[in-house]
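Narrative of accomplishments. A recurring question from our advisory board has been how the design workflow behaves on a single, concrete structure rather than in aggregate. To address it, we present the structure tokens for one chain from the evaluation set, followed by the sequence designed for it. No filtering or post-editing was applied between the two.
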């Protein structure tokens, strides 16, 4: 079954996908494939805010410098300057759309909205909506998208593959609907906004994280992936072995939160002059080391000294959520652990989101733009979503319109897909759990040559076992697992080739940075 062709097909409904849809819909027909529940994507769970130079006391060069420092020598400076310079106008676009950012109550404030500070930033430049910025932005943009007559939303679809014509151009995507019927969606331009790969790990900051399926879909068509080894672990995720994931925002430390070991000692000032405001890779490794040395399985994040009024004012969402889990953060420190949070690598793109595959674009966390380097600085993620979605939109709108070629199910050969095949969901869950355990054990915050080799062998054995199992190979969920498994193996390969410690990639065997380092490029064919 196929649908009428759209000018643009957007796969993913977070901030990047929603922004792009709104920017082009006045001129092009848009099909937006997004989950029925907004909380399935990472955007909605972003708490801290969006980094941009907004205060007259701040400057673009400072934001650029801070980003380059956090990226530990692997940022593309041109990409950093491009992103930072377009930040203020992107924020103004959100304000004009009605996003309810938190106002600064100080009548003498130099900027009307409250700006907080987070790790790696030398100034207050994080605009936010209390401690639920992602939710505020997503809700506002969804309302506008729903009201737009030229945007067709499809929340009943799961995309499994991209479609490619005989000339190598991307012409749309293949998926299944809620009735398990195959659907082909054709488009002149296809944009991946599918999120990162935190779902490759057992513990994440998002309840329903993607596992990099969009990255592999692009790679299957010939796109290059870059810097997969740089998986960011957020230093502070609520520790609750029996409950769902919940992020404790960077802003909690930005407003003065202290990290304590199990004896109550504040340990970050001993390790870094920036203390709790050091970049995330530094803080995550410090927490991980103290967890390994202790017996609790977590450290403490303490904000009791801020006082009840400040806590209730700045962190109402965190306060309410922790209370629902039996923790009064005005009286108790918060138990926290690092958890997989953000993929700094992804599908290689240029400043307009274009990939190496004609008519295929990638924006947001699924893309590698060069902005983040070896470590993403706090609150640069939503900034990247906004800036590159808007630049991608401008590029597509300025592209010459060619006569649309007639493409039907009869003239394209989509990859095999059998939605109605027998399917053992419990068995697949066991395979996913095994994959995630391998990645969490060997390809996490601290790595070693021995551990990466163990991961390579274990993933290869898992792949062999999967291939020997003949059940439902063409079932949509089976295909998605195969894609995640392929990305896991590519991540291990990229990590094993990096003979240094840099940013988020820390190796006990290569503890120092190399003198000459480059981004790590990889293609799907490299697995063969």
């Amino acid at each position: 079954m196929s649908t009428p062709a759209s000018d643009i097909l957007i796969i993913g409904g977070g901030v990047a996908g929603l922004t792009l849809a709104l920017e082009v819909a006045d001129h092009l027909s848009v099909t937006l494939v997004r989950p029925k529940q907004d909380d399935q994507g990472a955007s909605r769970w972003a708490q801290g805010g969006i980094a941009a130079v907004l205060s007259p006391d701040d400057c673009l060069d400072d934001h650029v410098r801070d980003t380059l420092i956090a990226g530990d020598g692997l940022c593309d400076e041109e990409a950093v300057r491009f992103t930072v310079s377009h930040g203020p106008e992107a924020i103004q676009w959100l304000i004009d759309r009605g996003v309810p950012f938190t106002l600064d109550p100080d009548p003498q404030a130099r900027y009307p909205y409250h700006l907080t500070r987070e790790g790696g930033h030398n100034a207050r430049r994080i605009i936010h909506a209390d401690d639920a910025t992602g939710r505020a932005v997503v809700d506002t943009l969804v309302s506008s998208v729903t009201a737009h007559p030229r945007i067709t939303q499809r929340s009943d679809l799961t995309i499994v593959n991209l479609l490619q014509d005989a000339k190598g151009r991307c012409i749309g995507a293949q998926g299944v609907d809620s009735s398990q019927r195959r659907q082909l969606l054709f488009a002149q331009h296809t944009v991946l906004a599918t999120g990162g790969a935190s779902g490759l790990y057992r513990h994440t900051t998002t309840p329903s994280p993607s596992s990099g399926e969009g990255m592999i879909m692009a790679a299957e068509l010939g796109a290059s992936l870059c810097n997969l080894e740089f998986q960011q672990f957020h230093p502070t995720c609520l520790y609750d072995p029996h409950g769902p994931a919940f992020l404790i925002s960077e802003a909690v430390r930005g407003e003065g939160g202290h990290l304590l070991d199990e004896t109550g000692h504040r340990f970050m000032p001993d390790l870094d002059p920036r203390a709790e405001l050091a970049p995330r890779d530094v803080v995550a490794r410090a927490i991980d080391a103290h967890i390994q040395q202790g017996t609790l399985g977590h450290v403490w994040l303490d904000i009791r000294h801020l006082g009840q009024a400040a806590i209730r004012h700045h962190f109402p969402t965190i306060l309410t959520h922790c209370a629902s889990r039996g923790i009064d953060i005005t009286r108790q420190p918060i138990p926290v652990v690092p958890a997989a949070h953000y993929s700094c690598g992804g599908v290689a793109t240029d400043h307009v989101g274009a990939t190496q595959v004609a008519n295929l674009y990638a924006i947001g966390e699924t893309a590698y733009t060069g902005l983040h380097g070896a470590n993403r600085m706090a609150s640069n993620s939503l900034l990247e979503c906004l800036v590159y979605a808007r630049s991608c939109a401008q590029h597509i709108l300025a592209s010459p319109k060619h006569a649309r070629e007639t493409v039907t199910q009869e003239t394209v050969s989509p990859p095999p897909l059998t939605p109605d095949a027998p399917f053992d969901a419990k068995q697949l869950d066991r395979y996913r759990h095994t994959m995630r355990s391998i990645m969490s054990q060997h390809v996490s915050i601290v790595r070693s040559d021995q551990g990466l080799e163990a991961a390579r062998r274990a993933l290869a054995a898992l792949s062999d076992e999967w291939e020997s199992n003949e059940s439902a190979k063409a079932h949509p969920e089976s295909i998605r697992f195969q894609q995640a498994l392929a990305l896991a193996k590519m991540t291990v390969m990229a990590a094993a080739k990096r003979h240094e410690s840099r940013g988020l990639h820390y190796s006990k065997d290569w503890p120092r940075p190399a003198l000459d380092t480059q981004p790590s490029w990889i293609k799907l064919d490299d697995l063969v």
